[in-house]
Amino acid sequence: EYEGERNAEGERHGRGKARLPNGDTYDGEYEHGLRNGQGTYRFTSGARYIGEYRQNKKHGQGIFFYPDGSKYEGDWVDDQRHGYGVYTYANGDSYTGDWFNHNRHGQGTYIYKESGSKYVGGWINGNQGGAAELIHLNHRFQGMFLNGYPIGRGKYVFDSGCEQHGEYVHAETAKEGEEEEEEHTLLVPPKWKATDITKVTLWTPNVEQPPSPTE
């Protein structure tokens, strides 16, 4: 069903309202039969999108409300979260930063609502990766991350005014050479191995530029 403006060729063109065969509805702008411009799309699942479209795809600025209560507000490219945006999760956590092809990718800040902890730094394909700072209530960790885990050398900085230096190392496998054991190790978080304690020094992350969102 469609109610709205059409052009000389009879295509949906201008402002209109439509109900799709699956029960979804769209209220907004059309161009040559396609959703184009500003509009509101409501899904039968309870989700809804309010924002810009280009040739039937979410493209530009928009807010997506998900059925679980989470929401994303920011840039879209070809139906994907892409560019800069803020995602508020159903459990109250939030991520503010770069997106690339629907994933957290680039530089961003993730806040854990329950603990109040905050991760500030690099992301690679949805996971924590690269130089970052993990900030807790009375101390923080500064170092490198890979696939969501700290890896290699880093330091803990305590509010009391001292630092503990060391590195995160993967646990050794009990039976080397067995594939099952090796695969199991990948699931075990690396362990912190402390080396020395010093006074607080200035830390600056070695930030690599993420791929350009336009690429």
From TrEMBL:
<dbReference type="Pfam" id="PF02493">
    <property type="entry name" value="MORN"/>
</dbReference>
<keyword id="KW-0969">Cilium</keyword>
<keyword id="KW-0469">Meiosis</keyword>
<keyword id="KW-0206">Cytoskeleton</keyword>
<dbReference type="GO" id="GO:0031514">
    <property type="term" value="C:motile cilium"/>
</dbReference>
<feature type="compositionally biased region" description="Basic and acidic residues">
    <location>
        <begin position="1"/>
        <end position="13"/>
    </location>
</feature>
<protein>
    <recommendedName>
        <fullName>Radial spoke head 1 homolog</fullName>
    </recommendedName>
</protein>
<keyword id="KW-0966">Cell projection</keyword>
<dbReference type="InterPro" id="IPR003409">
    <property type="entry name" value="MORN"/>
</dbReference>
<dbReference type="GO" id="GO:0005634">
    <property type="term" value="C:nucleus"/>
</dbReference>
<comment type="function">
    <text>Functions as part of axonemal radial spoke complexes that play an important part in the motility of sperm and cilia.</text>
</comment>
<feature type="region of interest" description="Disordered">
    <location>
        <begin position="1"/>
        <end position="25"/>
    </location>
</feature>
<keyword id="KW-0677">Repeat</keyword>
<dbReference type="GO" id="GO:0051321">
    <property type="term" value="P:meiotic cell cycle"/>
</dbReference>
<dbReference type="GO" id="GO:0035082">
    <property type="term" value="P:axoneme assembly"/>
</dbReference>
<dbReference type="GO" id="GO:0007286">
    <property type="term" value="P:spermatid development"/>
</dbReference>
<keyword id="KW-0963">Cytoplasm</keyword>
<keyword id="KW-0282">Flagellum</keyword>
